[in-house]
């Protein structure tokens, strides 16, 4: 009799455990779907913010490059080429220098961001690890769900293959950083948002009470070591 009772009890407990296991998995699945839907909504809202930013920008022509800007860009390129032991090509450095001057951004911040994103390789063909949102591509590690609308708002063409073009990656990163700094007026916030997304920045702020992520701090500290004199207007 006791054996029958114990057997029945084990069966009941097994069924109950299986039921709760299935319910728990379904609950986690529902939560994950809700989180994904919310983050997709936040991505749309971020796109709208960028669109509004570019619509509000004055319609002024970018001043053409000249001898002075070229000298500054060349000096920057020489420093970056030497610092990277030749990994960051001089033509990339000159292009970065020109783009940074047009957007009034520290080129060394962008350089250190690209170094961090590629693990120090500056590999234009880099494909990041798979996430639930897909892979990140190229030297600036943009994802295919965000890069097209950043490019569109900045007036740049877009094809997936362009993410592997180092000059395109540089320009896209400068454009996006320009928007983020304009949005937050602070490099801790801007860089953390670049790394985590604007929604990810909000979560980081709520959990930590500040925007000084390792990513933002490391990039700024490394950028500070460069000669900034060449960029003083």
TrEMBL record:
Tell me any Pfam family this protein matches.
SLT
Q: Where is the Transglycosylase SLT domain?
A: 98-214
| Domain of life, source organism | Bacteria
Q: Which InterPro entries match?
A: Lysozyme-like_dom_sf, Transglycosylase_SLT_dom_1
**What protein does this entry describe?**
Transglycosylase SLT domain-containing protein
Give the organism the record lists: Halalkalibacter oceani
């Amino acid at each position: 009799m006791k054996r029958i009772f114990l057997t029945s009890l084990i069966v009941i407990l097994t069924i109950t455990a299986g039921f709760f296991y299935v319910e728990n998995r379904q609950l986690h699945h529902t939560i994950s779907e809700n989180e994904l839907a919310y983050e997709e909504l936040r991505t749309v809202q971020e796109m709208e913010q960028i669109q509004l930013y570019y619509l509000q920008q004055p319609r002024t022509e970018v001043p053409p490059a000249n001898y002075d800007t070229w000298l500054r860009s060349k000096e920057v390129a020489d420093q970056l080429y030497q610092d990277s032991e030749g990994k960051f090509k001089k033509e990339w450095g000159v292009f970065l220098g020109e783009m940074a001057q047009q957007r009034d951004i520290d080129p060394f911040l962008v350089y250190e961001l690209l170094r961090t994103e590629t693990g120090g390789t500056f590999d234009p063909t880099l494909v990041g690890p798979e996430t639930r949102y897909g892979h990140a591509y190229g030297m600036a590690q943009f994802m295919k769900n965000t890069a097209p609308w950043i490019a569109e708002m900045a007036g740049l063409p877009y094809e997936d293959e362009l993410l592997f073009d180092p000059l395109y990656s540089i320009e896209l990163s400068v454009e996006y950083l320009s928007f983020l700094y304009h949005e937050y007026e602070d490099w801790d916030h801007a860089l953390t948002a670049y790394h985590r997304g604007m929604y990810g920045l909000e979560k980081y702020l709520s959990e930590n009470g500040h925007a000084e992520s390792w990513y933002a701090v490391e990039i700024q500290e490394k950028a500070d070591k460069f000669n900034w004199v060449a960029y003083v207007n």
